[in-house]
Design brief:
The protein has one domain (3-197). The chain is mostly helical and 208 residues long. It contains 5 helices and no strands. Helix 1 runs antiparallel to helix 5 (131-197). The relative contact order is 0.18. It has helices at residues 3-46, 64-68, 77-98, 106-125, 131-197.
Length: 208
């Protein structure tokens, strides 16, 4: 086989393959841009703002991300993760502790709720005053409602954070594609140069 033929085949193949990788990179970059823009636009409509530093207290003041983002709008996946895991989670834990049910969640407080309701029914059947039990049930109902709203918002924020991570990974993959495409084109151009410089009658042997 003539060396020039081999150089030309590899060069053209490299350019074509580099073009395919470039297209893949552009698609990935487009998806990354969409994820980033979509997350920012959606959060922008919510107008969620991080608490200013001077108003942070307790464990919140020790959370690096809350201090870093203090006073800024929640507008990215990383900020959503911070707000969910450090701000909302802190307030939910504090609410459960203040109500006397430290460590409780929306799921676990349900059994407490049902237990108090059963005690109230038992007291009513026995003709006993249920004032304290009614107050306890009202407190637990309020706590569970708080847990429901807080955990729902937290879950939505963490889902959005996960969505943003896909965007970040797509951006990284796009960068790898761009670099790969550039290298292939450079090598292919070098192959074309070698093709021009190689004598037309030079032959290489493909046999062992």
């Amino acid at each position: 086989m003539k060396r020039r033929t081999l150089d030309l085949a590899f060069s053209i193949g490299g350019i074509l393959f580099g073009g395919l990788i470039l297209i893949l990179g552009l698609v990935l970059q487009n998806q990354s841009n969409f994820a980033s823009t979509y997350v920012k636009d959606q959060f922008g409509q919510q107008k969620i703002e991080f608490t200013a530093v001077e108003y942070l207290n307790g464990e919140q003041a020790d959370a690096p991300c809350l201090v870093t983002y203090a006073g800024t709008l929640l507008d990215s996946g990383k900020k959503a993760e911070c707000y969910a895991n450090e701000y909302i989670a802190f307030h939910l834990a504090a609410a459960a502790k203040d109500a006397g049910y430290e460590g409780a969640t929306y799921a676990t407080i349900g059994s407490v709720q049902r237990g108090i309701a059963a005690d109230i029914q038992t007291a009513k059947d026995a003709g006993t005053d249920t004032t304290k039990l009614d107050a306890s049930l009202a407190s637990v109902n309020g706590l569970r409602e708080t847990m429901f709203k807080g955990e729902t918002l937290r879950g939505l924020l963490l889902t959005t954070y996960g969505f943003s991570i896909f965007g970040d990974r797509a951006a990284l993959a796009a960068l790898v594609c761009f670099i790969g495409a550039a290298l292939l084109v450079i090598l292919s151009l070098a192959g074309l140069v070698h093709f021009k410089m190689t004598p037309a009658d030079k032959v290489i042997s493909l046999s062992h």
